[in-house]
Amino acid sequence: MMPLTxxxxxxxxxxxxxxxxxxxxxxxxNLGFVxxxxxxxxxxxxxxxxxxxxxxxxxxxxxxxxKIMV
Length: 70
Fold this sequence. Notes:
Blueprint: E1 12-14, E2 17-18, H1 22-31, E3 38-45, E4 48-53, E5 56-61, H2 62-65, E6 68-69
Antiparallel strand pairs: 1-3, 2-6, 3-4, 4-5
């Protein structure tokens, strides 16, 4: 298990768990990051990570991406 931030652009993985405070976990779940869902890192720009999750592209900060374990 590793954080989403270690993946390179184009890599696909399955979300294993979300860590963090309950409000952060809920926010990530609302964006589509739930255990068992497929995610793909599209690009890393500055401190942000662009991720494809549930047929949508979402930009999240590096800190948020570190809470998503794949």
